[in-house]
Design a protein that fits this description.
Layout: H1 11-17, E1 29-34, E2 38-44, H2 64-81, E3 90-102, E4 111-122, E5 125-134, E6 137-150
Antiparallel strand pairs: 1-2, 2-4, 3-6, 4-5, 5-6
Length: 155
Amino acid sequence: MTSSPDGVLTIVEIEQLLPHRYPFLLVDRVLSYTPDVSITAIKNVTINEPFFQGHFPGSPVMPGMLILEALAQTGGILMSKGLTEPLGNRLFMFTGVERAKFRRPVLPGDQLVLQCSDIRKRMNLCKMRGVATVDGQVVAEAELSAAMVDRSTLP
């Protein structure tokens, strides 16, 4: 897979790195990345998101856990890009959240800027810091952890 020389990844390239698909693919574009160091991506939030039908009718707010999932997917892209061999039959699975804070609601029309950095790896486990912003203001932040697992071990 090739990507733009400036670190930008399109949705087609993102779909080659993540197993997620609509309606659960929550990263639209990667703006920049430095392998094993950091990544910046975006999620354009529109009123057409299926979760807005029930969260909350008349007052649509993006669920905080989906913001964290968008950060985790962004981190998964960063980890996948840093591998020396293809993922093959393996997946990065979200395993934990620590020190999560939600600072303000994310609404239709917002553009989430998703940043992951401060990566710590040990064997098949990794931890990183995730920060989501809208218009330069922090909307959510957390420490995220994930594990690389073989699909054949899943039920």
